[in-house]
Predict the 3D structure of the following.
Amino acid sequence: MNENEDFPRSLEEIRTIVRESLPEKYDRMANTWTHISGGCETGSTWRRSIEAFEGLGFVQKGINPVVQEKVDLSVNILGTKWELPIGIAPMSGVIASVCKNTFGEMATAVGNKNIAASVGYPAGPEIHKKMVETGAAVFRIVKPIKDIEKIKEALKSAQEAGCFAAGIDTDSVAGLKAGDNVNYKDTCDPISMDVLKEIRESIEIPFIIKGVLSEEDARASMELGADAIVVSTHGGSALDYSPSSLEVLPDIVRVVDHKMKVLFDSGIRRGSDIVKALALGADAVLIGRMALWGLVLGQAKGLEWILELLADEMRRILVLLGAEKIGDLDRKALVPLNHIGDRILKP
Ligand SMILES: Cc1cc2nc3c(=O)[nH]c(=O)nc-3n(C[C@H](O)[C@H](O)[C@H](O)COP(=O)(O)O)c2cc1C
């Protein structure tokens, strides 16, 4: 499947194709990517990450002067301009082999669409260098591994490779889970504030803390000198029974008060999900599984297709909301549709 016109528009169809075309050896991981199963333990957080979006509806305002061709979806994040408010979430492990030259294909798509991509640990500096060379805006997120000097080294190498930002996913400190399988249990450790400060000071480029779900962690991120946070449940793989990213977003946005960029991820499947997160104050979102599906579907072209689908959906929604640019969105565009929505939109 290589031509755009052959790619399916329906998410169900896309998921089915991905599930069927992944090699057998990735079967367990493929399950979590394609939502046949997903997240850790009971899957509560993972399910809630998807379901929370159902709690919010839009206030339609069809009588307005906004035309689709004029809708501007671009955002400015830490000195880089993204044509869409979407970045590719950091992913590592077996994703390197979901298609031939995964990171090269990802960089090509991201360079063509002028957005940003990130890479997780342990992908090495060679990968970052190659991605940056395509003109893509790249940032690196390192795991909280036990060897602090190795973390600093990894962040430094990202800076040297031309990444515009780098950081740590602090939700991996107790390992991550897919179902009942624990990954990174023996390689990661909690990091104290003092050490986090020291790590932050080891690079000059903007610093990101990924995996923030509480006001406390948002405040701590500001205190240690972070320039951005990612409000994220790690796609439901970190702490089962944590609320979804969407449920905690408004309180975190309030605490941050524009002093850091707020990125959002976990559970994004449609343009409407992105518009809801932005209306609640996120500066941009990251997509994990949807990006993987695109790569499996048709390498760079498949990922570009997914980005186009999301952008088309967002443009159409913005027209119906009477918003010409991302900055025009705010929580007045949203109404609660159930008890989760009530909590999210509480005054
Ligand atoms: C296969 C896979 C590998 C991942 N690897 C990493 C990683 O190395 N570092 C990290 O911070 N997050 C990692 N994540 C989490 C993503 O960055 C992101 O938080 C999550 O996928 C967002 O949820 P979504 O997949 O529903 O969009 C990974 C996710 C997947 C699906």
Summary: The two ends are 48 Å apart (CA to CA). The longest helix spans residues 289-321. Residues 33, 89-93, 95, 120-121, 141, 169, 210, 232, 234-235, 265-268, 287-289 surround flavin mononucleotide (CB under 6 Å).
